[in-house]
Amino acid sequence: MFTNRARKATGKRSGAVLGTLALAICLAGCATDKMTTGSVSRSASPQALEAMSAQQLAATVETLGKSYSRNPKDAATAMRYASVLQMSGRPDQSLAVMRKLAIDYPADRQVLAAYGKALAAAGELEPALDAVRRAQTPEYPDWKLMSAEAAILDQLGKSGDARRLYSRALELKPGEASILSNLGMSYVLEGDLKSAETHMRQAAQAPGADSRVRQNLALVVGLQGRFKEAEEIASRELAPQQAQANVAYLRTMLSQQNAWNDLREEERKRN
């Protein structure tokens, strides 16, 4: 997930509008209405968590919260708890968990990386950047940390620095869907939807692409006014009602902010 970033002084209104829309749509799609059953184990992956309904997430938060309260220094449990809190729309509580864990494990790379992501989710971008950079080791660089650092730089308005990092991350992990998707979002935040779609399509077709990557593609297509196509992409994994709701929300936001006219005018000037 990606938050709206500080804008460069370019005078382009559509870029700022798109940043807001990208955030709004991502938030609107967080709690899908999937009718699934079953519990999630202690080792539940992010993909498994992503497939949960809002009710399942709430139950998982309660279960992990109890485990965490029994032993707050259990790093694995604390990080899972913080992740589920974030997905449940509780970034401040997630950050509190990770801040305490970072105090207990100040040199642990995984803890620092998760702390950085929690800081970014809570809007504390400069401290997030510091935490992610401290987690990185120049002699054995981690492409995931590079991509995370680049995403934070994007939110700080440093798109050039961010894209250079994405390129380095892709050298370490060629064709990685999550990096390509983050790179696509970099162009969304700048208002360059054609470049964004190019990278999003590459991400969606890459091995290992998950639901979030494909929903980002649906977002970019919808932001260009191709609502039917966006709904078709979203419907491949979301319930039809949820896909329709996301597209309807996108239409409303574009209409309310008069953003679609801005986008069309900017596209006309480019051509």
Topology:
Layout: H1 13-28, H2 46-50, H3 54-70, H4 75-87, H5 91-104, H6 109-121, H7 125-135, H8 143-155, H9 159-172, H10 177-190, H11 193-205, H12 211-223, H13 227-235, H14 240-256, H15 259-270
Helix pairs in contact: 1-10, 1-15, 3-4, 4-5, 4-6, 5-6, 6-7, 7-8, 8-9, 8-10, 9-10, 10-11, 10-12, 11-12, 12-13, 13-14
Protein name: Tetratricopeptide repeat protein
Signal peptide: 1-31
InterPro entries: TMTC_O-mannosyltransferase (IPR052384), TPR-like_helical_dom_sf (IPR011990), UCP035836 (IPR014596)
List keywords for this structure.
mainly alpha; 271 residues; disordered N terminus; Serine Threonine Protein Phosphatase 5, Tetratricopeptide repeat; globular; 15 helices
What is this structure, in a nutshell?
This protein is mainly alpha-helical and 271 residues long.
How far apart are the first and last residues' alpha carbons, in Å?
31 Å
Order of helices and strands: HHHHHHHHHHHHHHH
Provide the β-strand percentage band: under 5%
Largest sheet: none
Shape: globular
| SSE class | mainly alpha
- Work out the count of structural domains: 2
- Counted beta strands: 0
Signal peptide: 1-31
Keywords: Signal
Protein name: Tetratricopeptide repeat protein
Pfam family, one: TPR_16
